[in-house]
Amino acid sequence: MSLSPADGAAYWLRWQVLVCGALIALPTVAAAALLPRLRSSAPPLRAADLWVPCWARLHPGWLLAYRAVALAAAVALLARLVVARGITVFYFYTQWTFLLVTIYFAFATAISAHGCLVYSRKSLRKADESRGLLNADVENRDVSNSVSGERKTDETNMMMSYYEQIVNERRAGFWGRCMEIIYQTSAGATMLTDVTYWGLLVPFFYRDKFGLALFTDGMHSLNAVFLLIDTLLNNMPFPWYRMSFFVFWSCAYVTFQWVLHACGGVSWWPYPFLDLSSSGAPLWYLGMAIAHVPCFFLYWLIVKAKHTYFQRMFPHAYVRAT
C-alpha cells in the first residue's frame, strides 16, 4: 500500500525511513569527525588569495568587475523566479544552490572591493617611492633615456612584485574563511544540481511535472558558468577535505524537506527520489549520497587541471595559490 506524509505516523514509522535516516546521519557524523583533523594539516588561507587573480598581469579590479556583474545577474534571475513563482521555489535544491552561489558572489564582491582598495594604496606608495628614486637618479646622473626606461620597467613590474609580496600577507579573517567555504560548497552543490537535472530528471521524468520554466532551466547551467569563470580568474585554493561542508549542505536540505513534510507543511516531494513511500527509497538515497563524491571531485579535478596546465602553458603569467 502506498502511503504519503499526510498519513501521519504510519508513513514515518516505515523501515525505509530508518534506513534513509541512517544514510543522512552517518555521512554527516563522518564529515564532522574528519574535518578538524584534515583542516589542521592544511596551509593557512591568505587574505590576498581571496581577491588577487591567478594571472600576474591582471589587475584585481577585473576580478572585482566580473564578480559584481555575476552578482547582479544572479540576483536578477533569482528575484525574477521568486516574483513569478513565489517563495515555494525554495522547496527545490536547485534554488538552494543558486542562492548559495549568489551569496558567494556577494561575499566575493565585497572582499574584492576591499582588496582593490588595499592594492591601490600600496600601488600609490610604491609609485611614490619609485618616483623618489628616479628623481634622485636624475640629480646624480643626467641620463634621461635610462630614467625613462627604469620608470617603464618599474610600472610594468609593479604588479609582479606585489604578487611576490603576498606570500607574507596576513591570514584571512572570519569572513574570508566563510567566503572560501561557501565557494567550495557551491562548487560541489552546483555539480550535483546540474548532473542530477540534466542526467536524471530531464531524460527520465517529464519537466512539466515540476512546472519548470525556461529561465528555471537556465539556472542549471548559469550556476556552473558563473563559478567556472570565477575559478579561471581567482587564486583560491580548493582542498578536497572541504567536501565536508558540501555534505552538511545537502544533509541540511534533506532534513529541511523531512521536517517540512512531517509538520504537514507540504504534501508533495520536489524530487521523486526523496519520496520515502517506495521500497526502493533507500537505494535512491544511497545513490544520491554516493553521487556527492564524484560531483565534488569533478570540480576539484577542474581546479587541479587549471593549476597543472596553466602553469605549464603560461609559466610567467600564471600564479598558483599555495
TrEMBL record:
Coiled coil: none
Transmembrane segments: 12-35, 68-92, 98-119, 212-233, 245-271, 283-303
Keywords, comma-separated and alphabetical: Membrane, Transmembrane, Transmembrane helix
PANTHER family, alphabetized: OS02G0130600 PROTEIN-RELATED, PROTEIN ROLLING PROTEIN
Protein name as catalogued: Uncharacterized protein
Species annotation: Zea mays
Biological classification of the source: Eukaryota, Viridiplantae, Streptophyta, Embryophyta, Tracheophyta
Gene: LOC100191945
